[in-house]
Amino acid sequence: MTPADPTSPLSQPGDAPASAALLERARAVTPGGVNSPVRAFRAVGGTPRFMASGRGPWLTDVDGREYVDLVCSWGPMILGHAHPAVLEAVRDAAGRGFSFGTPSENEVLLAEEIVDRVGPVDRVRLVSSGTEATMSAIRLARGFTGRSLVVKFAGHYHGHVDSLLVSAGSGLATFALPDSAGVPAEMAAETIVVPYNDVPALEAVFAARGGEIACVITEAAAGNMGVVPPQPGFTQALRRVTAEHGALLVSDEVMTGFRVGRAGWWGHEGVDVAPDLMTFGKVMGGGFPAAAFGGRADVMALLAPDGPVYQAGTLSGNPVATAAGLATLRACDDALYARLGEVARAIADAASAALSDAGVPHRVQWAGSMFSVFFREGEVRTYDDARAQDAAAFGRFFHAMLDAGVYLPPSAFESWFVSGAHDDAAVERVVAALPAAARAAASGS
Ligand SMILES: *Cc1c(COP(=O)(O)O)cnc(C)c1O
Q1: Is the pLDDT of residue 12 over 80?
Q2: Which residues, 6 or more positions from 146, have their beta carbon under 8 angstroms from its beta carbon?
Q3: Which of 49, 189, 199, 325 has the most CB atoms within 10 Å of its CB?
Q4: What is the distance in A from the centroid of ligand 1 to the CA of 134?
């Protein structure tokens, strides 16, 4: 790796010579030079920053530039980078060995913590990624119901599971076409995509095919098209319609779980809707690969070795990852959630004021302390609404913020994330950068 030289003068904003050099080398050995596509900056252009280190709310790139981090690893770093308690737990666990391929105590402790926090979860199985969690939950729902169709909502992301990597045409419910090459049409045809927040469309799909539907999977509050919470009554409608037809309700809380509150969107929105299965990831791994799916005891009982639905993982419940996750969740108390809310509110209010002053149409939406700024006016309820925004204006805004030392998600379709480590200095850096970035957003229109 090219070592950062903080004394080397950076000639102009936007320059990132060490990142550019690493990207070139990376491209020679890795497709696109990145290990997850959104890191490549394709939506905003420019050179993706290779980060060298992180501490609290700050990231330092290989050119020695510092940024306030509003991505937080896409959610997991809820305590900030290299949090002392998590670091100590990781060091301690790693000192005892990295992986045993046997059961170990931390797995029990983490599972107990999840079951304790999330009412509808009686039993939980640990896996290594959110993708694995949703894939396994769907297999389990199919095994339990003996049905094969899955209903998902347009604009919801559940990881890169073949049958879930589909988006909808607009308007009425449609059978999905694959969103990615390499997904067989037969597999995509097992998925029905319905517009989000549209109860009549959901009811119509169930009226036509209800007896064949294994489950509805939903982002508890959508965060992967920007933040679009369920409309009042929508989650209740999901519960009612699935129950009427003997289908399971799978609530994907990989992003919202342990971030929008002690449990997640469940418990934040209200505790009257209990999904049959839930999925978790991101925060519960504390920055390490740990994720989970869980739910009703009678459904989870079908999993191997007790039941016929197979699911496994060499590194599942890894002792270092579970130590990080446990230390993270133990630090996620009411004070932490209150702090996240304050920081998010301060940043969102300042962003909104700056964009208003610059005359940039925008809309801020919330799910707990998760928020995103849509570059359009009016409420965003569906994927079509989310897509109708000025992505070019966001691109100009993004780069102005980056040049001023603020690392935003490099896409207009993402939540902004804060951490408990975002102190006044970090918030001030963001607030100071906003007016010029808002003017840059306005400048191209
Ligand atoms: C991030 C995410 C996933 C996928 O998790 P990975 O760990 O990236 O596989 C699934 N569902 C939701 C809602 C997510 O936000």
Answers
A1: no
A2: none
A3: 325
A4: 8
Pocket flag, ligand 1, residue 73 (CB < 6 Å): no
Is 217 within 8 Å of 154 (Cβ atoms)? no
Is the pLDDT confidence value at 413 over 60? yes
**Relative to the CA of 130, which ligand 1 atom is closest?**
5
- Tell whether the model's pLDDT for residue 101 goes beyond 70: yes
pLDDT at res. 176: 59
> Mind listing the pLDDT tens digit for each residue in 165-174?
876 333 344 4
pLDDT at res. 238: 98
Write the pLDDT tens digit of every residue in 232-252.
999 999 999 999 999 999 999
